[in-house]
Amino acid sequence: MASSFLWKRLWKHKVFYLFMLPGIVWFFLFSYVPLYGIQVAFRDFNFMGGFTGSPWAGLKYFHQFFDYYQSGTIIRNTIIISLMKLIIGFPMPIILAILLNEVNNRKFKKVVQTLSYLPYFVSWIVVITLMQRLLTPYGGPVNDAITSVFGTEPIQFLNNTSWFYQVVLGSDIWKNIGWSSIIYMAAIAGIDQQLYEAAKIDGAGRFRQMWHVTLPGIRNIAVILFILATGSLMGAGYEQMLLLNGPATTAIGSVLDVHVISSGISQGRLSYAAAVGLFQSFIALILIVTANRIARKISDVSLF
User: Fold this and answer.
1) Which residues contact 184 (CB under 8 A, 6 or more apart)?
2) For 41, which of 16, 121, 187, 274 could close a Cys bridge (C-beta 3.0–4.6 Å)?
3) pLDDT tens digit string along 177-225?
4) Could you tell me which residues are beta bridge partners of residue 192?
5) Phi/psi at 43 (5° precision)
6) Distance between CA 191 and CA 187 in Å, rounded?
C-alpha cells in the first residue's frame, strides 16, 4: 500500500524528477562510482595489476604517513589555516549580504554585487599573479602607497612568515565573499516584510531590525552552511596553498591538500596519496556528524 502511494506521487510529479535526473546521474558518476577506487589506499597499487590485481598492503600507507616526520606539522598547518578561514571567513558573506540588504540605491547595490561576485570566477593562478603585481616590494602600487604615506621600508608580503596567514585569509575572503553571499541574499529576500513593518511600529531602528528580524530569518541557512563548512577543516585549499606557499613559508604553509597531490602525481605514490586523502575524508565525516549533532541540540537545525 505504501509503495503504491509512493509510485503515485512519483508519477504525479514526474516532470520535476525528470529535471532532477541529470544532477542525480552526475552525482552518482562522480561521487559514488569513484568510491570503488578507495581500495587503492589498502593495496600496493601498480598499473599492471590495476585495482583488483595489486597485492593488499593493509594499513601500510597509513603507518607511513603518521611515521613521516612532517605529518604532525602538515596536519597542524592545515587545521590552523582552515580554522582561520572558518572563524573569520565564514561570517563575512553574512555581513556583506546584510549590508547590501540595507542599501536603498539599487544601482550602487548592483555594482557592489557584481564586483564582489567576479573574483569567484577568476582562477587562483590569475589571482596570485595579480597579488604578486600589487604586493611586490619594489614597483608595486601597495608598497608605493605605504612608503609614500608612512615613509617606511617596503614590506615583503609574499613569501614572508609574518604576513603569510594574512595574505592567505585576505585572498580567500576576497575571492569567495561575493559568491557565498548569494544564498544569504536569497534567504533575506524570503523574509516576510511584515516582520520589518512590525519592528518599525515597535520603534526598532535599522540595527535592531537586522538583529531581531534579519539574523533570525537567515539563522537556519547559516547553521546548515556552517555544518557543511566544518567538513573542510582538514582541507585548506589546494590551488591557493600551492601557489602562495614558498621555500620561506614551508614551515607554516605545508598542508594536506598539497601533500596529497605532490605525493600522488609528482612522486607517483598513488597508494600513499589515497591513504592520506582517505584520512582527510574520514576526519571530515566525523567533524560534520559532530557539528550536526551539536547544532541539532542547540538550535534544532540539522542536516539529518
Assistant:
1) 93, 94, 97, 98, 218, 221, 222
2) 274
3) 999 999 999 999 889 889 889 988 888 888 899 998 999 999 999 999 9
4) none
5) -125, 155
6) 7
